[in-house]
Amino acid sequence: MVDVRLSGESGPAAVPRRQRLTVLVVDDNPGDRRLAEMSLKVGSHDAGAECDVLLAGSLADGAALLETLVAAGPDAILLDLGLPDASGFDGLQALKILRPDVPIIILTGLDEANTAASALTNGAADYLEKDDIRPRSLWRSISYALERKKFQEELVQLAITDPLTSVKNRRALIEGLELSMEHADRTKLFCAVLVIDIDNFKQINDLLGHDAGDELLVRVAERISETVRRTDIVGRLGGDEFAVIATNLPNPRGAMELAHKIARAIGTVTRLDGRPIDIGSSIGIALYPSGAVSSGDMLTHADLAMYKAKKEGARTICLYDDSLHRELSRKLELKRAMLRDISTPSFYLDYQPIVDCRSHRIVCAEGLARWRQRDDRVIMPGDFIPIAEENGWISDLGMQMIDQACGFLAGSLAAGAPVVPISINVSPIQCRDNGFAGLFTDAIDRHGLTPDLFNIEITESTFMQNIDSARRGLEALMNVGIGVHIDDFGTGYSSLSLLRDLPLKHLKLDRSFVSKLIDDSGTRKITEAVSDLAHKLDFKTVAEGVETAEQAELLTRIGIDYLQGYYFSPPISAARLSEELVIFGPDEAIIATQHDSAGQVRAASR
């Protein structure tokens, strides 16, 4: 647009050039109306603009004119405070309700500073005494009012827009969702929230750099915006998560069809930073009305559906349903119970023996966390560990389990009973904590033990966010003698690079390989390759999930060093493990022989 300025002026008095400005003058005095009209005509002419002037002698007449001009103006209103059908600022408030987007300039014959201040406080854009009405002064007042309106609109836009992608931000999405839910109640139609997550965005971001990652987000936002309907709202929730609010849906099928269109559109982004890429998306959908009572519920439901879609595999679309609601309710119930029990003995370790592949004697045991609730139900770690991680409890819980393992070993050694090293599963959050190694070694020292009685088991996902931080933590543990084992090996993103870059001792072959070993020749070849590679790198190998004699025999022939699974033993209590060690004895059972002056237990092979 071209600026319109008064002759010889520059700066904020400019008005955006339009083919025509429309100004409504509401004044009961015919002479004042005529003066305002003439001043507007002359002022607009001097500024190189055209101005249509609409005249009304009462508030009622002005309101009637506004109702006929909803789509076409006016651009500004000149309002007399002394109208016969409006007292004080009542007229101003009435017109603001009718047209809150139109700046109103107050005209009055009163020469009082407090009147001007009150006018501005009540929502007027400016204030002019009638004695000051001149073409230049009147036009300048309108110019400033329109500039302020434009500036305010830009501020509002900034407040509701994601600065990177130019789609709506989270705040605007929530406001739009609330309006859409109200509209659905009135029209008896459906609305939906689609939460969209870019699959493997972090890997793309790490590989190509943050600038390329930002460019990908911009292009995904463009694809989504081009795909949705004009009435739909597109926004970014944060990170690589987007959302679409779909309105006026006659049935739930419409939301699923839109999701498929969006997924296809995102898939058309095939190059980034000059390189070919293959991206997909995981989409969760929540419908209204369908159980949700607030915008927060809707976003939570769609988010749960999206995470379920991610669990089911890339490029998946999932609709929130009652099963997810039950899952959420159970999760909230567990969270409340966990908060109650987190500092009690309700959390404990069972131990699953790990045996030598040839002698089948116990050489190690994995500590597996359990949670016994007050009704004596036992909750498995897959249900409560994610809750602990999400709520910041995992470090405290992890140290409780380490302290229990230390107590078990110390008690056994004090009684002269044989023990084997204990492997403890460690959360990625703990592993990236700079203080974790110190806390672990402090617990070992406090119980008078040696670090070589402990291993930690970590998954490859531990290193996906910050491999350097994880490496430093693992090196600190290995430097004092604690072993590091990779759990679920072969299911992560960068297995070979981990073998090269990280301080490891054992590889634990994922149970998915063991379960297919007998019937799948491809799985056997992979298992053989992993075993050969590990031995060349001086790693020991462990196969978990061994359930049959045939699996154990084949793994032994392949060269796997250690075996773990229900074929040998389920997870058992600490007392039962002690009995097993006494009965069967480990390959190198460690027994307490003497205590040095520092209280350290010296170990000797039996």
Describe the fold and architecture:
It contains 21 helices and 25 strands. It starts with a strand and ends with a strand. It folds into 3 domains: 3-160, Response regulator (Rossmann fold, 3-Layer(aba) Sandwich), CATH 3.40.50.2300; 170-320, Alpha-Beta Plaits, CATH 3.30.70.270; 331-341 and 348-605, EAL domain (TIM Barrel). The strands form 6 sheets. An 8-stranded mixed barrel has the order 15-16-18-19-20-21-22-23, surrounded by 5 helices. Strands 4-3-5-6-7 form a 5-stranded parallel sheet, sandwiched between helices. A 5-stranded mixed sheet has the order 9-10-8-13-14, with helices on both faces. The model is unreliable at 1-17 and 588-606 (pLDDT under 50). The protein has 606 residues and is an alpha/beta fold.
Task: Describe how the helices and strands are arranged.
Layout: E1 3-4, E2 15-16, E3 21-26, H1 30-46, E4 51-56, H2 59-68, E5 76-80, H3 90-98, E6 104-108, H4 113-121, E7 126-129, H5 135-160, H6 170-187, E8 190-198, H7 201-208, H8 210-227, E9 233-238, E10 241-249, H9 253-266, E11 271-272, E12 275-276, E13 281-288, H10 295-312, E14 317-319, H11 322-341, E15 347-356, E16 362-372, E17 378-379, H12 381-390, H13 394-414, E18 422-425, H14 428-431, H15 436-446, E19 454-459, H16 467-479, E20 483-489, H17 495-501, E21 506-509, H18 511-516, H19 521-536, E22 540-543, H20 549-558, E23 562-563, H21 574-584, E24 590-595, E25 601-605
Parallel strand pairs: 3-4, 3-5, 5-6, 6-7, 13-14, 16-18, 18-19, 19-20, 20-21, 21-22, 22-23
Antiparallel strand pairs: 1-2, 8-10, 8-13, 9-10, 11-12, 15-16, 15-23, 16-17, 24-25
